[in-house]
Amino acid sequence: MSETQHRKLRVAVIGAGMAGILAAIRLKQGGRHDVVVYEKADRIGGTWRENTYPGLNCDVPAHAYTYSFAPNPDWSSFLAPGPEIQRYFENVVDNFAIRPLIRFNQAITSCIHRDGRWNIETSGGLHDEADIVIAATGVLHHPSPPAITGLETFAGDRFHTARWDHSVPLDGKRIGIIGNGSTGVQIVSALAGRAAKITHIQRTPQWIMPMPNDPYTDEQREAFRQNPALIDQIRYGEQYTSLVRRFTDGVSDPDSTQMAEIETVCRNNLEASVQDPELRERLRPNYRAACKRLIYSPDYYQMVQRPDVEVVVGRIERVEPEGVRMVDGSLHELDILVLATGFHANRFMRPMTIQGINGADLETFWSRNPTAYLGVAMPDFPNLFLLNGPTGPVGNFSLIDIAERQWAYIEQLIAQVESGKCRAVNLKTEVMQDYDQRRVEAAKKTIFGSGCASWYLDANGVPATWPWNYDAFATQTAAPKLEEFELIG
Ligand code: NA7
Fold first, then answer.
1. Ligand 1 centroid to 382 CA: how many Å?
2. Distance (Å, rounded) from C-alpha 346 to C-alpha 292?
3. Which ligand 1 atom minimizes the distance to the CA of 203?
4. From the CA of 115, how far away is ligand 1's center (Å)?
5. What is the CATH class of 3-142+344-488?
6. How many angstroms separate the alpha carbon of residue 205 from the centre of ligand 1?
7. Which CATH code of 3.30.420.60, 3.40.1010.20, 3.40.640.10, 3.50.50.60 fits the domain covering 151-339?
8. CA distance 353 to 369
9. 236 C-alpha to center of ligand 1: Å?
10. pTM, whole model, 2 decimals?
């Protein structure tokens, strides 16, 4: 559609992280000029702004964790470090000139649908009215501190990984890390050798997928610059795409050969990497690989075999001024206590009052569990779309790719409104219900539902994620089925 054909719509994007930046750029490229992005913080970047812990990197290959329209020949290594990803997003925002669209320090407090438009209030006292709202608020942004007795009595420094206190010196300190998700594992690898001692406290051992992380040489980067097809080979080539396919085929069918393959690689990694049989058994999980989000690490098993790293597996009794007391009575004395205990993964854009039509209220709609059709749309919230919303694919592959697919789907719905065919598109309730029913049934059968606790599970213990494979997601988001939406005139 040409620019002049557009019915002029005001679009409000919530969040200037990876997905919000994507939406803003695409809206601008589509000739839409009435676009505003509300950002709660004073900088863009989302998770890459919030997380600054030592060792932070993305466990998806850098060239795949890149917008399709903004390839980056300069990535320093196969897996990009967090600060470099933050710089990438800053550069993209400037290169595509969307910074002027962003209102910083404006958390949205409410979005209420009134007289055909979304009435928006911000913490900074702004009021806005938009035809379309894009909630690009991210998934893991509310830190989850652990409920451990005595946490506040700890005499040393203590912080959650997403609130890293960079004023605290680390070298030569006794550092305890509670939690061994991707975050805890990356921190142990980064601090081993710097700290006097690392104590890695884990309630549940994790499977580790080996993942080499070689730096790119100057020659390789120059080659990427000269020949972007080399970047495409990494991003779209058979090696990576078949890996993603095999992984999602495996996740959706725990009895598949693909899943057996993943398990074999993880088991061999443990057997071959950890020499001491007692430590090896301590590190051995008692559930299936990929049940929790798989940890990718080039060197975690090597690091925990250092004499200055101790792995403590068990339950914590309490935190005392000196350190962490385990249920077995042992006390691990520490100078610094790092809480790598993850996030409330079910919050999404909450806390935010969102009220649609027909009395719909988001808190009520999500009271059983957060859901959105294809992670994108919800009934009775017309013209409100989510990027990386609940039930979308999360896993060990690129969320940028997922968001781009979702955006292409959303843009086709926006086009319906712009064309003048209707004022709003509203997902039909029965479509949502049917999707949810099928999704929940399928989710219970995925590897995520095979008997472990993780942030993938909802309050009912059902995996909250996309339960089918990658191709199913690509196919279903390729084009909206208009009959699934009520076109409100
Ligand atoms: P995760 O993957 O949610 O990991 C949290 C870790 O914290 C996990 O090992 C938990 O053990 C542990 N935890 C949580 N509460 C406690 C208490 N009370 N006592 C002991 N241990 C506890 O968070 P991450 O930040 O590592 O990763 C989040 C995602 O960010 C990651 O998956 C990537 O997508 C990026 P548990 O396994 O529950 O026994």
1. 35
2. 16
3. 39
4. 44
5. alpha beta
6. 11
7. 3.50.50.60
8. 17
9. 31
10. 0.96
CB-ligand 1 contact for 413 (6 Å cutoff): no
| pLDDT tens digits for range 281-323 | 999 999 999 999 999 999 999 999 999 999 999 999 999 999 9
Mutation probe of ligand 1 site: the residue of 178, 287, 288, 456 with most atoms within 8 A of C-beta:
178
Strand, helix or coil for residue 151: helix
Cα 420 to middle of ligand 1, angstroms: 48
Note whether 3-142+344-488 and 151-339 share their fold.
yes
Ligand 1 atom 23 nearest Cα: 342
> Per the omega criterion (within 30 degrees of 0), is the bond before 351 cis?
yes
Q: Which two tokens stand for residue 159?
A: 């912080």
Please work out whether the CB of residue 204 comes within 6 Å of at least one atom of ligand 1.
yes
For residue 444, count other CB atoms closer than 10 A to its CB: 14
Asked whether 369 lines ligand 1 (CB < 6 A), one says: no
Count other C-beta atoms under 10 Å from residue 423's C-beta. Answer: 17
pLDDT of residue 4: 43
**pLDDT per residue as tens digits for the range 228-262:** 999 999 999 999 999 999 999 999 999 999 999 99
- Ranges of each domain in the chain: 3-142+344-488, 151-339
User: What are 168-174's contacts with CB under 8 Å, separation 24+?
Assistant: 168/336, 170/54, 170/194, 170/195, 170/336, 171/195, 172/196, 173/335, 173/336, 174/199, 174/323, 174/333, 174/334, 174/335, 174/336
